[in-house]
Structure formats: C-alpha cells, structure tokens
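Problem 12. The chain below contains 384 residues. Write out its predicted structure in token notation.
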Amino acid sequence: MKEQMFGFGCMRLPILEKGRPETFDYDKIESLFDAFLARGFRYFDTAYTYHGYECEKAVRRTLVERHKREEFELATKMPLRDFKDAEDLEAIFEEQLTNCGVDYFDYYLMHNMGLNVYEKCRQYDVFHFVKKKKEAGKILHTGMSFHDTPELLEKILEEYGDCLDFVQLQINYVDMDQPNVRGRECLAVANRFGKPVTVMEPCKGGTLVNIPEEAEQLMKAYAPDASAASWAFRYAASQPGVARVLSGMNSMEQVQDNCDTFSSFVPLNAEEEEIIRKVTEIINANTAVPCTACAYCTHDCPKNIAIPQYFALYNSIMRTTGSFSSQVGYYFNLVHAGHGKASDCIKCGQCEKACPQHLPIRELLEKVTVKFESGGFFPTRAKK
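Solution.
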C-alpha cells in the first residue's frame, strides 16, 4: 500500500515558545495527527530524547489517548548515549511504555547507532536485549537508526543481522555521495543484507525545501505545481530497498502536500533524475555547513551554544551578496536570550561525538565567530 510508504516524524512538532521544545502546541499537533490519519497513513516515529525528553508523553496525549490502538503504528527508540548499564536498559524501556501509554511498540530502534556507541552496545548486549523484547511481544519490528560509515553498517549486520528487521538511514539527494554521510553506500549495504530501509532526513532538515532560486526554477520549469519537498520525498522513496520515508511535519500545509505526494506516488523518471543531479550541484555550491538542525550537539553543551541556529545564520550569510545585518541581529538575539556565543566554545568535543553528520563543529564555530563577532558587527554584552 502506498500509505505505508510514508511516516510522521515527531522530532519537530509545533511548539508555543521558540527555544523551548517542551512547550507543545497540543491543539495543533492533534489537528496534524488527525489529518494524517484521515488520509489513510498510520506510522508515527518518536524517540526518548526528542523535544527535551518530553516527546513520547506528547505523542501519548495527542495520539494514543485519542485513537484506537489498531488505528496507528508507533515507533520509538532506545537512547544509546543515555543508558548506563543493563539495568538502565530495562528501566528506560519500561519508562517508554509508560510515556507512550502502550503495551507494545510496533517498531523499536536503537537510536543514532555509530562507532561512538557501538562498543557500548556490544558490552551491554543491546542488540539481544531488543531481540528478547520482540520475542516477549513487547516489540513487533526491531531496527536501528544509523549514522556512520558503510563499513560499520556491514560489520553490525554481519554480527547482529538476526536482531534487526530494518535499518533507518539518512537518504536524500544531497547526501548520497557526501563523504560525511555516504548514503548511497549505506543503502547498498542494507540492500545486500536484505534489510528494508526507513528514510530519515529526506529533506535534510528543511534544506531541500528552501533551495536556491536557480534550483527551484529547474524544478518549476518541469513541474510547475510540484513543491520542492515533493521532489525530495519522491527521490528518497524511489531508491531501491526503501520501504518508508519519514517527514517531521509541523504545519497543515506540509501534511497535505506530503500526503498528496505519497497518495499518488510515482517514482522519478530519467529526466527528473537529471534535474535532481543539477539541483544537487547548485545546492552544494551554496551550502557552507551541511547541518540538519537535529540539535543533538546541544544536549550537553556546557556553554549552551545554539549551534544549529548559528550554522543556519552562517549559511544564510554565505549565500548573501549584500548586507547581512539581519543575520547579525538574529545572532545577537540568541545570545541575549541566554545562549553562549560561538566564541564561548571551550572545545570539549561532546558536540562532535553526538553529531550524526560528523561535522567538525569546533572548527566551524571558529568560522562563525569570525563572521559574527569581528569587525564591530557584534555588540558585546556588558559583564555583570
């Protein structure tokens, strides 16, 4: 069924107060979830850590408590950075069942698997922990969200493939051949092991929605009524072995447009693939920092630096040919609101360990510092 190809990602639900991810706009979330279900779609993807560790509870309130269990499928994830030992695994899993208000999870993933947590997972046998939960009927389908090299993915599937029913990968037309993601190679590994792929970040955190005008014109010339997002979703869903594509939607326009795309899904043809190739070249030439704004880097930042926001402003400046006073103003507003400046970075490196994109964040923050805090652009805060 085409409806099973599309899932509602809950990483970017609408909130009431900017900068406070736990201030959910419950009425709006309910309307978005209801519209999604009304179109025949069922899959919802959340995680223990989303929205300041409050997202699972929000999903319970807006989805689970308002709809029959058979009307939806729910996926959540074990936070691999957060658990401390085997007992903690059990405690977190039980907490998640309570958070979500369910007796079982349709899909359960090990979250943000990479080399930085792989040995920890082996030490505490997380793979078989999840497999045993499936055998006990607490999980119907097991998987992992993966952000690392195809070599590590192959190693994991060779060792623990029997514990995994599917793999969640970052697949979008910009990242397929990027050396920090290597989406095409990871997809090929999953296909070789016969693991269906769920796609995350098909629009790369919104990057492929707000594309350069030159790129947008190429798409509009071919399909005047198709949104940039629909091109990104169709690209991801057209890849071999892809079973489902997720979208983190926070407006009714997004829900309706994306549901339209998958209700009448048609794979890309050769001419459209060539347009995507040209669009990719344009976007790569106009993107300084390939950040997806997942904000994993900020969770334990000792200086509370607004890393994704600063990178977005930096990208905006690098695409600007004239004055960039508005970007500097936004930067100052973030600092005034209590965030550390880019120059406040103490180079502890926790952000780079957490970054799914494997970005050199400390080095990039130095570039942000030069652009925003030099030349008299940035008004210095008075010390108290």
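Discussion. Strands lie at 6-9, 43-45, 73-79, 105-113, 139-146, 166-170, 197-200, 242-247. Students who got a different answer should revisit the alignment rule from Section 12.3.
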